[in-house]
Target: phosphoribosylamine--glycine ligase
Amino acid sequence: MALRILVLGSGGREHALVWKFARSALVEQIFVCPGNGGTSQVPKVKNVSVGNNTFEELVSFATQEKISFVLPGPEQPLVEGVEEHFRKVGIPVFGPSQLAARMEGSKAFAKAFMDRHSIPTAKFRVFVASEYEQAIEYVKTCGFQVVIKASGLAAGKGVLIPETVDEAIAGLKEIMVDSVFGSAGSEVVVEELLTGPEISVLAFSDGYTVVPLPAAQDHKRIGEGDTGPNTGGMGAYAPAPIAT
Model:
């Protein structure tokens, strides 16, 4: 059966996905909502704007176009429950449920999960916005260099790596008082800084079987030589040579 695919997103990730999909003889048509200039140049691909992009409108579009499956690129729609909306009408979504996506959507939830299940993780404390003074006291007295993270989704930019205690306090003010990350900063994770190369290992699961992918490296800082503030990712590659 010829596949008709709906991809949600507008970034380089979505461009790479549709480029790969388009190379398959099994794929008849790919819709990208909203897509970008790159996706518009790929054979079999059509960028679409679906009303206000509400989940109900997306489901209606997918039903009309006889979509075979949906692939959300960004985390936000998954965290907001897009998978459930399509599942209700029998359209598969390649992505986690809203409950499972909470592991990505809330760093505080993920850290508590790891702590509860004895999964090794950096030392941490979680503070809500009303605990600004307590957070300041913690970074002054914890005894190690910290990383400050807005708990919610912030397009990959919600992690601050201060060099000094004063910078850490300034970072807390940005997130907890100035609300530079909006509701994503309603909770803040203050975490011990761990140094060294970083890799990402993803795995697919249907709830019964786990299939790991090769390790990848994502270069997040904006400057050369791993300098400057974090971004949503300046580039990534796999397999990562440091993984053994």
Summary: Helices lie at 12-22, 55-64, 75-79, 82-87, 98-105, 107-116, 132-141, 165-177.
